[in-house]
Design brief:
The structure holds 2 protein chains of 2 kinds. Chain A is an alpha+beta fold. Chain A is built from 26 helices and 23 strands. In chain A, a hairpin with a 2-residue loop joins strand 9 and strand 10. The relative contact order of chain A is 0.09. Chain B has one domain: Arc Repressor Mutant, subunit A (Orthogonal Bundle). Classes of the chains: A alpha+beta, B alpha+beta.
């Protein structure tokens, strides 16, 4: 038999070799081959091969056991060395673990936040096939997409498209709800009958199958059941609801859990849509495609894709007469339910939405802090590499190769990050309540599979990111050079210098950002709004046109009789501060449109608000026609429509009553400072701006004076609000009073800026702390190395002061360089951010200079302990041993 | 000292008997012959590895031979602690087997 035929199968021996330790390959493969040959000669090659393969599989368990045994011993030894190293330099290890754990804790918080943001509305069983219908309207100048759709759309869709399984339309109103002598103004939602069949909100009590079937049924949330009925069973109980002028009795048919999952539909009171129909059936709101009264949700059947259906939906105009004005087109399209929460592009929506930008900002901040922690690890590991060089040398001499050492040092880094992980989980759970408060969230610390996966992944990633470079550097030391002494490890110093610069650059960037954000916020809250926003109160009347007029008059009379000092003025308006005024567009003779924002106001509005009149006169009862055809405009209006000498000119546009401008007032803000000043028109009556040929037909029109505006005098607020309450209960008995300070509204506008400003504050404080700690560690290490040099310098006569300067200089130069790099980056980023505001503060050089000073100060203080220690040491103690 | 397992005892005794020519193939052959059953290499290596970890046997590398594809042998020798372990297991066995012979039915061959 030729020699090559009786070789054992090569794939077999290769495969088997993988399960053997290096030193046992010869032994075991040799044994196998010997027996293989023996069988091959006696019983043939085929039998031998069969035997060979079978034997391999029979032997594998023994080999595996052996490999695992030795691996474990190696791991044990690595662990022992790693722990020894961690405990040997406690300060450095503390800095490392502290920095990383803060970073990982930030990451955990960010992870929880982002996960929460992106998990909204996913708890609904059919969340994949539920959509909201959006309306997209286009005209020559305008293109807008809205979440509100006509209320008749749902019926038409159901009729036209068999793909739609169910539809739910939702609209809302804010009536007064009474029970047991209590009354509250609440937001009540009219919802279609299929609400509980489309959405998976669990019904906790009452009619489980169809709670909205009866016309007088109302479904309330668990929270409202507690508010109105305390511990009693609410099912079947009566709630008195006052819609507009009509009072009606509703009976609680079910209690449901609106918090079954993260939901962007947060409805406390649900009544059947029939109630809406009762009021609007046959009227404009239900018959026309011109009025968007609420939101429409649909559930498609399983086999229909959104794209296909959107295509069909875009041709809806060929089925129904949308009755659009000339030059305007409307399209309807679907938005997945799960996209709703992070879509904040609609000014009018029933859903609770949030901006995805917050997720980005937070992720960026978290990664920044984590990155700074990682850099600490890197610089300190490199700084310590000299003292570990001997260890590397000895290991190499004994027989470790590069990859062994690299693995060992990487393992150490991962071990440290695992320690940091444990600390981070504890830290994060402690920080979560404060974080929830800051971010305005209610996130629970829940450990699930995705969470575990994420933290393990980040821990490994941090370990590898922080440990791989030191591992490579350390494992490359030449044992001969290292052990002989005087190994050249200088080249790495430049790298750690770069790292320190990067670290400080990031911290400086964060500080500049924080300070500028704060400045912008102060600027906005303290800016002159064009009216006096302090001690200004609004009281909602929430009744009909006629009743409001009577209540206002009675209220004024009461105030008139009583204390003059407490209350300086009373007026009223249709739209309160902070809400957009009604947008009106009227054609001119030249077929152009005059567009402006309109508010119907009472006589003393200008005076009570503290708005400054530039020219002209206020509304006055002496001129009887003021209530019909007088308007007051702002400077922006005059400017935009180019009216010269505006007093007594007619308002441009074709109006029925030919209104004349009686005064021009200074520009003032009626909404938030995110928006620009708009052209404004104020009149005593909406008749003044009634167009000649068409009439507005929207739910808020015609307006009436719905808000009493009260200017309060100086002094304690409590007696004044008490006085207002008692006056209110006299003039409008039985209805709840809603006192709203304009200052509160202004603060609410900037709530999110304030919140995120605070979060950035904390992030930058942590970042600079970690960076400073890292610098502390680094200065400690470099001082250890330079002690002898300093000793010799002292012996040779260096003065202490000069030594301090000499030692500090190096690190301070790095921080200065970091400043130079951070400035342009911060400038560009802030410039971009400030674009979001119509009124923006400038980017201030003094902030940059202050930050530079601060960073140098922090760096100087951090290293001062080490510097002073070195400068005051006795040279004898150091250079004695040589 | 922990007692040897049966497999370890068999392998250790075989190494002792083979006197310097004990390596994987011969150990397996001998055991197969003595016990009358076929042992796989796995069931030899497992006790051998354990004995080596406990230092009851030591490895000596032998000369490479042609029938092994040019690979060197790994010869096993029993150490002194190995001897002691054998002695102690033997003592235990003798104590256990004492007076048992009378109770057993007689073997047919």
């Amino acid at each position: 038999m030729p020699e090559q035929h009786i070789k054992p199968p090569l794939p077999g021996s290769r495969f088997f070799g993988k399960f053997l330790l290096n030193e046992e390959i010869n032994e075991k493969l040799g044994d196998f081959e010997e027996v293989f040959r023996y069988i091959a000669e006696g019983r043939g090659v085929f039998r031998a091969r069969l035997w060979y393969w079978l034997q391999i599989f029979k032997t594998l368990p023994a080999c595996l056991e052996n490999i695992i045994y030795w691996r474990l011993i190696m791991i044990k030894s690595y662990l022992k060395i790693a722990l020894r190293n961690i405990t040997k330099s406690k300060a450095i290890s503390f800095i490392n673990i502290f920095g990383l754990s803060i970073g990982i804790a930030f990451f955990i918080l960010v992870f929880l936040f982002v996960k929460n943001e992106y998990s909204h509305d996913r708890f609904h069983e059919n969340h994949d096939s539920i959509y909201r219908v959006l309306s997209e309207s286009k005209s020559a100048k305008n293109h807008r997409i809205g979440a509100y759709t006509p209320m008749r759309l749902a019926d038409d869709l159901k009729r036209l498209y068999p793909e739609i399984e169910k539809t739910v339309r939702v609209s809302r109103t804010t009536p007064i709800i009474r029970n047991d002598g209590n009354s509250f103004r609440e937001t009540v939602y009219y919802v279609g009958k299929e609400f509980f069949n489309v959405f998976s909100f669990p019904v906790l009590k009452g009619n489980m199958s169809n709670p909205l079937a009866e016309p007088h049924s109302i479904v309330i949330s668990k929270e409202m059941a507690e508010k109105y009925f305390k511990n009693r069973d609410p099912v079947g109980k009566k709630l008195d609801i006052e819609f507009y002028d009509r009072k009606r009795d509703f009976y609680v048919s079910a209690v449901y859990d609106r918090k079954a999952g993260e939901s962007s539909l947060v409805f406390d009171f649900l009544v059947p849509f029939d109630i809406y129909l009762e009021r609007f059936n046959g009227k404009f709101m239900m018959t026309s495609y011109g009025a968007n009264g609420g939101e429409t949700y649909i559930k498609l059947n399983e086999n229909t894709s959104r794209q296909d259906f959107n295509k069909k939906l875009s041709k809806i105009g060929s089925h129904i007469n949308l009755d659009l004005p000339q030059g305007r087109s409307v399209k309807y399209l679907l938005q997945p339910l799960t996209d709703i929460h992070l879509d904040n592009s609609f000014s009018n929506t029933l859903a609770v939405v949030s901006s995805p930008v917050y997720s980005y900002i937070l992720s960026g901040l978290g990664l920044l802090v984590l990155f700074i922690g990682c850099i600490n690890f890197l610089t300190l590991a490199l700084g310590r590499s000299a003292s570990r060089a001997k260890e590397v040398g000895i290991r190499k001499v004994i027989g470790a190769n590069k990859s062994h050492l690299a693995k060992q040092y990487l393992g150490e880094a991962i071990l440290i990050s695992v320690f940091a992980l444990f600390a981070a989980v504890i830290l994060a759970s402690l920080m979560l309540p404060a974080f929830n408060e800051l971010a305005g969230k209610a996130i629970a610390f829940k450990i699930d599979v995705s969470f575990l996966f994420a933290i393990l992944a980040i821990t490994l990633l941090v370990g590898i990111a922080a440990g791989s470079y030191p591992a490579v550097v350390l494992s490359q030391f030449n044992p001969v050079k290292v052990l002989r002494g005087g190994a050249n490890i200088k080249g790495k110093n430049n790298f750690s210098r770069i790292l320190v610069v990067v670290q400080f650059m990031l911290s400086i960037f964060l500080i500049i950002t924080t300070l500028t954000m704060r400045k912008q916020l102060n600027y906005m809250t303290e800016m002159n709004l064009g009216f006096d926003h302090e001690r200004l109160v609004e009281i909602a009347m929430n009744s009909s046109d006629k009743v409001s007029a009577q209540v206002l008059q009675r209220f004024k009379n009461e105030i008139e009789l009583k204390n003059k000092k407490m209350i300086l003025g009373v007026s009223a308006a249709a739209t309160p501060y902070g809400t957009d005024w009604t947008r009106i567009g009227v054609d001119t003779v030249e077929k152009e449109q005059v567009k402006f924002n309109f508010n119907q106001v009472d006589y003393d509005y200008i005076k009570t608000m503290g708005i400054e009149i530039v020219e002209g006169r206020n509304f006055s009862k002496e001129y009887g026609s003021d209530s019909k055809d007088a308007v007051i405009v702002n400077e922006k209006f005059v400017e935009q429509y180019g009216i010269k000498e505006p007093l007594n000119k007619l308002l441009p546009g074709r109006f029925k009553n030919k209104p004349g401008i009686i005064a021009v007032v200074k520009n003032f803000n009626f909404a938030s400072l995110h928006d620009d000043i708009q052209p404004l028109v104020m009149a005593l009556s909406h008749d003044a701006v009634a167009a000649k040929y068409s009439s507005l037909n929207t739910p808020g029109w015609p307006p009436y004076l719905d808000y009493i505006i009260v200017r309060l005098g100086r002094g304690d607020l409590r007696p004044v609000t008490g006085f207002l309450e008692s006056t209110w209960s006299k003039v409008s008995p039985g209805s709840p009073i809603e006192i709203n300070f304009v200052d509160d509204t202004i603060n609410r506008h900037y709530l999110s800026e304030k919140r995120w400003g605070k979060i950035v504050d904390y992030a930058s404080i942590f970042a600079i702390c970690i960076a400073a700690l890292g610098l502390f560690g680094l200065s400690m290490l470099s001082m250890e190395k330079r002690l002898k040099e300093i000793g010799i310098r002292k012996v040779l006569g260096a003065a202490t002061g000069r030594l301090v300067v000499f030692i500090t200089k190096d690190l301070l130069i790095l921080v200065a360089i970091a400043n130079i790099f951070a400035w342009p980056v911060a400038f560009l980023a802030l410039n971009k951010w400030l674009q979001n505001f119509a009124y923006k503060t400038g980017i201030d050089l003094s902030i940059f200079l202050f930050t530079a000073f601060l960073s140098l100060l922090i760096a100087g203080l951090t290293i001062s302990y080490q510097t002073l220690k070195a400068a005051f040491l006795n040279p004898i103690d150091i250079i004695r041993y040589e | 000292m922990k007692l040897l397992s049966r497999a370890e005892e068999i392998v250790l005794l075989t190494v002792l008997k083979l006197k310097g020519s004990a390596y994987g193939v011969t150990i397996r052959e001998h055991i197969n012959k003595e016990t009358g059953t076929t042992w796989s290499f796995g069931s030899i290596y497992m006790p051998l590895n354990k004995l080596a970890r406990k230092e009851f046997v030591k490895k000596v590398s032998g000369a490479p031979t042609a029938e092994r594809g040019g690979r060197s042998k790994c010869l096993y020798e029993v150490t002194e602690t190995g001897m002691a372990a054998l002695a102690s297991i033997r003592r235990v066995q003798e104590k256990l087997w004492a007076h048992v012979a009378a109770l057993l039915p007689e073997e047919s061959d």
